[in-house]
Design goal:
Blueprint: H1 2-15, E1 35-38, E2 55-58, E3 64-67, E4 73-79, H2 80-84, H3 167-179, H4 192-205, H5 214-222, E5 229-233, H6 236-240, H7 251-255, H8 265-272, H9 277-282, E6 295-299, E7 309-315, E8 320-325, E9 330-335, E10 337-338, E11 348-357, E12 361-363, E13 378-380, E14 391-395, E15 401-403, E16 420-421, H10 424-431, E17 439-443
Parallel strand pairs: 7-17, 15-16
Antiparallel strand pairs: 1-4, 2-3, 3-4, 5-6, 7-8, 8-9, 10-16, 11-14, 11-17, 12-13, 14-15
Length: 444
């Protein structure tokens, strides 16, 4: 630590040599993976500045210096091996991360959504939604030969009983999210969704990663997208919405609404950055998300997976969905809520019939489940807070599908009415990689 603060002192001296005339009028875009950002006080900057939020300059040593709009030095890019004494082995100080909030989340096992969207057609005709363009075939590296990951022979440390969110676990969740092994809503806590994602990643890659080894996790993040946190500036469009005041529970009241959109800026941003809404608020104490120009701290997720999915496996026991490419290699894995004892999911193999984005939902008590006292057919408008969220992937078995959810933090912790429920962002990612005819295998 003494050498670290010595380095910080050197950096501060170097910063004092920045010439005002050297200020560039180009924004700072991407941090090089072999560098770290050091503040004038000698600390590692705990986030990646949002694109365009700072300008760049050069000191007399040729290093990149970040300057904010007021002319203040934010940080300087320094080679990691200079700061830490060895290449690509980051020993981050305790104050690297934002405050670690506690609590939050939910384990309400009685919650369930599901059903069949059909935009007004009781007979469940075509949704008449444009089919997404498939991304190029670029499956993830590794070879699982189409098998479903199983629990490894060693025991992964379990933190499921802990209610405290930690930035170290957030870093692990961000890493898994970038790799295509979704941990669900990122909340800084080690739970079953994170453990399942880690197990699948380890079986695919043949590597092991200790959840408690933050140094190793940070090293991997530095080589693939940078730090786990970054800043985001709330835009006028973000603040404006439109938003709805609240989402009623009763389906008849939902049917009377024009849209089942987001209820707040925080809910929208949480889904945008794959986060638990309470966690987003906790790491931004005192921030007014409704004011355009407000700078907030968010997790630095990746660009998502791409490729052409040829086979999907819905593992009911693991509560996890696996997407495989044409070569049999695993592209992505997602935590899921799959059926219940009262309304089980199908068994065997079915196929994808069609895909609809932002679908409406038709509730029919004679075909669907019984919701409250509703005994009539109801046409419920679309929106991220609709019963099936932002996506509906219809399956060849009538009334069943893969879809999103209005409650992403409950995925994998609750049951569904027979369908496969994912977070909205995971369902959207999967929907963009599938087409009619893709097989979906339900395993116990």
């Amino acid at each position: 630590m003494q050498s670290f603060w010595k380095t910080g002192f050197i950096v501060a001296v170097l910063l004092s040599s920045v010439s005002g005339s050297a200020l560039a009028r180009s924004p700072y875009y991407n941090q090089r993976p072999e560098t770290v950002l050091i503040t004038p006080s000698g600390e590692v900057l705990q986030y990646v500045p949002e694109r365009g939020s700072v300008m760049i300059s050069r000191d007399r040593m040729g290093r990149t210096v970040l300057i904010d709009s007021f002319g203040n030095v934010v940080a300087t890019e320094m080679p990691a091996d200079v700061v830490y004494g060895r290449p690509n082995r980051a020993r981050y100080p305790n104050d690297y991360y934002p405050p670690a909030p506690s609590g939050g989340g939910s384990d309400d096992d009685n919650f369930a959504t599901g059903g069949i969207p059909d935009e007004g057609s009781v007979e469940r005709g075509s949704l008449e939604q444009p089919y997404p363009q498939n991304a190029s075939n670029d499956p993830s590296m590794g070879d699982m030969h189409g098998t479903v990951p199983r629990k490894p022979s060693y025991s992964t440390p379990s933190f499921s009983g802990s209610s405290k969110a930690t930035p170290e676990i957030t870093a692990l969740q961000v890493f898994l999210d970038r790799e295509g092994f979704s941990p669900g809503a990122i909340d800084g806590r080690m739970g079953q969704n994170v453990e399942k994602a880690l197990q699948a990643w380890e079986q695919k890659t043949g590597e092991t990663l200790d959840p408690k080894n933050t140094e190793a996790i940070m090293d991997r993040l530095q080589l693939d997208g940078g730090l786990p946190f970054k800043t985001y500036t709330v835009t006028a469009a973000d603040a404006a919405g439109p938003y709805v005041a609240e989402i009623p529970t009763d389906y008849s009241q939902k049917a009377a609404m024009q849209s089942l959109g987001y209820t707040s800026t925080t809910e929208m941003l949480a889904e945008k950055f794959h986060m638990d809404e309470d966690y987003l608020k906790a790491i931004n104490p005192g921030v007014d998300f409704t004011v355009p120009g407000s700078t907030v701290k968010v997790v630095n997720v990746g660009s998502g997976q791409s490729g052409k999915v040829a086979r999907i496996v819905a593992d009911k026991g693991r509560k996890q969905v696996f997407a495989y490419g044409q070569d049999g290699q695993l592209i992505a894995a997602y935590p899921a809520s799959i059926g219940s004892s009262d309304t089980p999911s199908p068994s065997g193999t079915v196929t994808v019939q069609r895909v609809a984005f932002n679908p409406g939902y038709t509730y029919n008590p004679k075909i669907n489940f019984q919701q409250a006292g509703n005994d009539k057919v109801l046409n419920i408008p679309p929106g991220p807070n609709g019963p099936v969220g932002t996506v509906w992937i219809a399956l060849s078995k009538p009334t069943y599908g893969i879809h999103g959810t209005p409650d992403p933090s409950k995925i994998g912790r609750t049951q569904s009415h027979g369908c496969v429920r994912l977070t909205n962002w995971d369902a959207t990612e999967l929907a963009k990689m599938v087409q009619p005819g893709v097989t979906v295998e339900f395993v116990d």
